[in-house]
Amino acid sequence: MKKLFNILAISSLMLLTACSKDDDIKVITPGDFLPAYPLSYWDYSDGSRILTSSNYVHHSYHASTSSKNETQECLVPIWDGKYLYKYSIYQQSTTMPLRKLLNATGSNAWVVEENNGVTVKRTETHLDSLTISWKNNTDTTFKDVYMVTEHLGHFDYKTKWSIREYYAKYVGLIRVEVNNPYQDVATPVIQKDLRSYSIKFPENN
User: Fold this and answer.
1) Separation of alpha carbons 163 and 122, rounded Å
2) What ranges do the domains of the chain cover?
């Protein structure tokens, strides 16, 4: 009986220690323009579905390309197979370990990649709304949207861009467009539009 009591006591102590450890770890909750809370999903016109993990997961990454030191471990969701730090994703890359998708502040260009002297930037533009054709050929208007344009640093992002992503508040990614940046005039092609989604917002949100 005493042996059983000792086993139970040790097990309880280990459980409490594990809980305390998780309580001390910072949780990176999703931002309003990419609310990738666990157990959420988004379906798109190209037949793809973006999923989030069933819970927050432990993660850290190399903060600098010149150091092997890792950041402090955090709890983050997995979105589209990538670790999500609010508006940035972790890449399995030693050259660009963290890639910012958007700012959601209206601030202008930031660098997302630099390779062999070529700089890739993203520029953010706020839109009051964006209307897309949704279910049963009806139009759906999303309000408070950020258009994020990815382009080579030496190109004009308004005409010579490669990718545009649109993020709506409390919804997330609603449209992706692609373009040939080597044309004189932008001729965007819609790669995918949002068709349906389900977001598991926290109860106190």
Assistant:
1) 9
2) 25-198
Residues linked to residue 27 through DSSP beta bridges, in sequence order: 75
Residue found by looking up tokens 């990649």 in the block: 113
- Phi and psi (nearest 5°) for 10? -65, -40
Question: Tokens 């009986």 identify what position?
Answer: 1
In one letter, which amino acid is 94? T
Instruction: Quote the pTM value.
Output: 0.84
Are 27 and 75 a contacting pair, CB within 8 Å?
Answer: yes
Distance (Å, whole) CA 37 – CA 48:
19
Handedness of CA 166, 169, 173, 175 (dihedral sign): negative
What are the tens digits of pLDDT across the range 41-59?
999 999 999 999 999 999 9
Which residues, 6 or more positions from 105, have their beta carbon under 8 angstroms from its beta carbon?
124
By the 8 A CB rule, do 173 and 194 touch? Answer: yes
6-43 as b/e, with b when 16 or more CB fall inside 10 Å? eeeeeeeeeeeeeeeeeeeeeebbbbbbbbbbbebebe
Task: Judge whether 24 and 58 are in contact, CB under 8 Å.
Answer: no
Write the pLDDT tens digit of every residue in 110-119. 888 887 778 8
Query: The tokens 């370990």 sit on which residue?
Result: 97
Count of CB atoms situated within 10 Å of the CB of 1: 5
* Tokens read off for 181: 């940046």
